[in-house]
Amino acid sequence: MVGQEKARKQMSVILDGQWRIAQGIDDAQPGGVLLGGFSGTGKTMTARMMCTHLGLPYAETDATRYAEVTYKGLQLPQIFIPLMREAARMKDAEASPTVTDTDFTPPWAPQSEKGSADSLFKREDIDEVVARAEKGVILLDEFDKWMQRVNHTTGQRDTAMQGELLKMIEGSHEFVTATDDEVGVPFDTSKVLIICAGAFVGLYQQVRARLHDDSDPRAQQMDENFWNAIIPEDFERFGLLPELAGRLSRHIFTRPLQQTHMREILTRPGGVLAYYRKRYEDYGVRWAIEDDGENWLTSEAMHHKTGARALEHVAHKMLGGEVLFEASVADMAMAVRLKPNWPRAKVGPL
Asked: What pTM, to 2 d.p., does this model score?
């Protein structure tokens, strides 16, 4: 994860603690984790890659999909269904490593909580699957959106979902089911690591105001002392229940990516630039984009506020579309070039 050395180290320590629980070395970890950072800085990818390396059941789900009891939407205990599905996939892969079960897709892929979950709950080894999932990791993305929920009856900030999550982080026995027609299977939440992730837009301005710091925001965001100064009370002012802020006292923040980081991501093997280079070369077009063109593409991506995701958007705009089409129908030896201040690449004779 480029540019996130400190976040990598912090995440590795916490996930190593979860691995120790899965191995039976420790009983539990102290509470959950708040994972904050700007969009496209690698929050979810860091957790996903580390859990895969450690062999921990891991799932991602969107907090905005869930609603409190009696409201339309998934019920909060159903956040554990993707985790159970992943535990089942891992168990099946160990039993038959050469067989691919098409019923199981990556737990971070969009999917119905019903559908494949129906077959999940009918498994004969469901108790073993649950036991494995109970020691896994679930990342609740877009968690900061809960801070903005308003009760339509009272008009006040709605904290009901936060209260339900607090109970799970403290350790509770939930009945997890895909439908309202079944009781479901018992699930002990006391050993699951719940990571609450989000961009927390507006939190950083609150922290700056508390610190009476009027320095340049971009320089401040790269200052380690600023991130170390964020405390649970800042999240309370942002809208987090005090009790939940106390249980989510371990904080990890990904830093804004600098241009050198963005260029490294752009040019790494298997990255977006390598993809377009292969497309052009497959059409017989010589790749003639040099360092100045790569720097120009990177600087354009820096104008967006979506981190590394902006590289894909800008690369498509400059290298894809009609430019790539021209390369595909060329009837003579051509080369593709990109220079500073060009709105897009150009395909022309060698």
From this structure: 0.80
